[in-house]
Write a structure and sequence with these properties.
With 72 residues, this protein is mainly α. The chain contains three helices and no strands. Its main location: membrane.
C-alpha cells in the first residue's frame, strides 16, 4: 500500500522546493496566459482555446506555447 506524505512529513528543504517550484509554475503559466490574452489571434499558431488548455499542463504547456504558439 502506498502511503502519501503530508506537508508535515516533508523536510524544510523539501517544503521550500515545493513552494519554489509551485511559484515558478504559476508565474510561467500566468505569463503565458497573459501573452495569449493580449496577442491577436492572427499572431498565434493554431487556436487560442487550444493553447489556453495546453498552458495548463505543468511546465511543459507554458514553455510549448512560448516557444511554438506565437508567431514572430
Amino acid at each position: 500500500m502506498v502511503r502519501h506524505q503530508s506537508w508535515h512529513d516533508l523536510t524544510p528543504g523539501q517544503r521550500r522546493a515545493v513552494i519554489v517550484l509551485g511559484a515558478a509554475q504559476f508565474t510561467l503559466a500566468g505569463v503565458a496566459w497573459l501573452d495569449l490574452a493580449m496577442r491577436p489571434a492572427s499572431e498565434v499558431t493554431g487556436r487560442k482555446g487550444m493553447w489556453a488548455a495546453v498552458i495548463a499542463v505543468n511546465f511543459l504547456g507554458p514553455l510549448a506555447y512560448l516557444r511554438w504558439g506565437r508567431r514572430r
